[in-house]
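Thread: Newbie trying to understand structure tokens

Hi all, I'm a second-year student working on a class project, and my supervisor (Dr. K.) asked me to get a predicted structure for one chain before our next meeting. I've only ever worked with sequences, so writing a 3D structure as a token string is new to me. If someone could post the tokens and maybe explain what I'm looking at, I'd be very grateful. Here's the chain:
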Amino acid sequence: MPGNSMAGKRLFLIAGDYSGDIHAAKVAKALLAQQPDLAIEAVGGPHLKALGVPLLSDQSQMGRVGFGAVLGAPYHFWLGQKILGRLQQFQPDAVLLIDYGGFNLYMAAKLKKRGYRVFYFIPPQVWATRPGRIKKIKAFVDHVFCIFPFEKDLYESHGIPVTYVGHPLIGELPPAPDRTAFCQEYGLRAEDPIVALMPGSRKLEIDYLLPAIVGSLPTLQRQQPKAQFVLAQAGSLSDDFFIPRLTAAWHQAGGQGQAPVTVLKNQNHALLGVADLMIAASGTVTLEGALYNTPMILMYKLHPLIYQIAIRLMQLPCMGLPNILTDMQRPIVPELWQDRVNPDSISQAALPLFDPQSEQVQRQLAGFAQIRQALNTGGAAKNVAHSLLNLLQGSQAPESAHSPQ
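---
Reply by user tm_fold:
Sure, no problem. This is what the structure looks like when written as tokens:
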């Protein structure tokens, strides 16, 4: 296990879904920039692979929610055994878990039992749901790298070593593109409203949210005839899966021919940078939208049985990060949960956001400015890398990390 020298150090990363792979790759890149001889292997996806990190397994099957997670239990068990087998050979000095709470907490227990040092970047949101998980984190995780400032106090109150590193989106999002150039490239009109439709990156999110989103388009078209709808297709979703569901949703809404949307794949950040408003699945994309100053509504829907369980486990009155980080008692962003994820509710919530001078838009923009200020620490991936290397060398990570100069 680790000594004081970094020579020959080994690190294993476990990133469970598409966004986790992005964050893992940024951390790996920062680690290798600071310590080029660090050996890294991982469970991850295309971003880690592009960096040249050897992958034990591709995580494309891991990004499941709701019943998908239950049905995926045999796969996850098999993957856990495969990871433990590889670690016996690789003998890492530490394992860094990234997001993906259910599987990674399961792995944390297995890893700790075998004597590995376990670090966690982007830990489960125990402050929002399933607070009992913090006991598992205390038992099985040696150090937490948290991404929200209020999390640091929470972990410290439970005696868990923690470093606040800032949010990985701050400073890492690309700048908004030139609106005119963007519109020319994708056949849009720069002078008319652009509505970003963001149904999520997981297959079950598409199945639950896309029909309602597409079903709202006829009403939005009637009320805002100049509006242009741009549908974001996650890179993790194939055309064979995505396009037939879009067509079916449009026909279900009474539309003829192709849906009146421009489909863009792997262009989320550029789209958010030019969009006048967005209709989005609850998740990281809502925080991205806030950082791009994009007014929004957000939605959350699960299988009814899973939703009833989830709602009982919730600790907060809000689901969306923009509301949690600003004013949960008077949310700045409309949230549509479960049965309210329907065409009528979506169109009613979205229509006021077409007016940039409306009270709703102005409140959101003021809240977004507050969020940017709170989450800015100068580069989360570099902060994680710097603190992690200190821990591997045997020195203490700082309570709040800042990128090395």
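A couple of things are worth pointing out once you decode it. The chain has a mean pLDDT of 90. The CA atoms of residues 25 and 50 lie 9 Å apart. Feel free to ask follow-ups in this thread.
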